[in-house]
Known about the structure:
The complex is a heterodimer. Chain A is built from no helices and 11 strands. Chain A is mostly beta strands. In chain A, a hairpin with a 2-residue loop joins strand 5 and strand 6. By secondary structure, chain B is mostly beta strands. Chain B has no helices and 11 strands. Chain B has strands at 4-7, 10-14, 19-25, 30-38, 45-51, 56-59, 62-67, 72-77, 86-94, 103-104, 108-113. In chain B, strand 9 (86-94) and strand 10 form a beta hairpin. Chain B starts with a strand and ends with a strand. Chain A binds chain B through residues 33, 35, 40-45, 48, 50, 56, 58-59, 90, 96-97, 100-101, 103-104, 106-109, and chain B through 1, 6, 9, 32, 34, 42-46, 49, 51, 89, 95-96, 98-99, 101-107.
Amino acid sequence: EAQVTQNPRYLITVTGKKLTVTCSQNMNHEYMSWYRQDPGLGLRQIYYSMNVEVTDKGDVPEGYKVSRKEKRNFPLILESPSPNQTSLYFCASRTLGSPPYQPQHFGDGTRLSIL
Amino acid sequence: GENVEQHPSTLSVQEGDSAVIKCTYSDSASNYFPWYKQELGKRPQLIIDIRSNVGEKKDQRIAVTLNKTAKHFSLHITETQPEDSAVYFCAATRRETSGSRLTFGEGTQLTVNP
């Protein structure tokens, strides 16, 4: 089954304690991205990656890091989490190339609470 | 960069009525406009999309229209049902480039009352 898998689904942690949210897709997609979703603000892109070892900032990259060492994985790293990073996070992937307008597939989301 | 505005933020209709959600975009180079539906506690799922070379697209009770000149596009749901209740997001993006990315509207909470 084609899917984007995020872990963990829920996490409550404290300020300053480094955490990583994993994302893995089994569709051989080149493009992967991370979004955060906050009430009234929609989905805002944090980082994206066009391929292995190619990453770029989205609209709200501050306080986050990513890496793309393998095509299937795109972890999101919060090195020193703060309460304003409490949010619902989605990983997404899609293919690139021809045809160019491929839809994104989203993971099930990770709800982070930072106290 | 692209900016997408979505209206209304909340919409309540009676079952069987039509619902219309509107979005405007700023980047005239944007040429792909998907719509996502997100049910409570679930991930966004694509329901319909339209390319800039098409003015209208329909899929059963759902249709999307695009006005490139005015830079706005709309989602139309006819004969609404309670299961249509969800948050709907519009989005816009330009053709694949090294900086290509999808920009989302703020979302519309649609409630269909039985």
